[in-house]
Amino acid sequence: MGGDFNVIWNEEEKFGGLPVHINEIDDFRHCITTCNLFDLGFKGSIFTWWNGRAEEDCIFKRLDRCLGIIELQQLWPGLEINHLSKIGSDHNPMHLTYNPSTGQIKKAFRLLNFWIKHESFLDVV
């Protein structure tokens, strides 16, 4: 799911304007959590919207994002979202790509020393 949600997730997703009040973001956070969604992340600028004004009247926010269920990232680990440069709109376009050659995240092998002392260790290894 992706789109313009017209709300930010936290204070870091806004620059300029009035301070963010917690009530503005609580409903959004509750909805995302209740639906078991997570942010797919992004590359590029954090801000996806600009009010078009300059200097002290300038406001930037991250209003656009791609959300998914955890299985989405497990099934397609090569998903990548890029925030592109603004062109003709007050919102930056997002570009979703899938690179099937990006393999599963490999976990490092860890040997716990107590296994070496187990009586059947050498037989199994």
Question: What tags apply to this protein structure?
Answer:
125 residues, alpha+beta, three-stranded antiparallel β-sheet, 21% strand
Report on this model:
With 125 residues, this protein is of the alpha+beta class. It is 22% helix and 21% strand. The protein contains 4 helices and 8 strands; from the N terminus they run E-E-H-E-E-E-E-H-E-E-H-H. The protein has helices at residues 22-34, 70-75, 113-116, 121-124, and strands at residues 2-4, 14-15, 38-39, 49-50, 60-61, 64-68, 79-83, 94-98. Strands 1-6-3 form a 3-stranded antiparallel sheet. It has a 3-stranded antiparallel sheet with strand order 2-5-4, with no helix packed on it. A two-stranded antiparallel sheet has the order 7-8. The radius of gyration is 21 Å and the shape is elongated. It starts with a strand and ends with a helix. The model has no long low-confidence stretch (mean pLDDT 86).
Number of strands: 8
Q: What structural class results from the helix and strand content?
A: alpha+beta
Give the number of helices.
4
Biggest sheet: strand arrangement? 1-6-3
Radius of gyration: 21 Å
Mean pLDDT: 86
Short summary of the structure?
This protein has four helices and eight strands; from the N terminus they run ββαββββαββαα. It is an alpha+beta fold and 125 residues long. It is elongated.
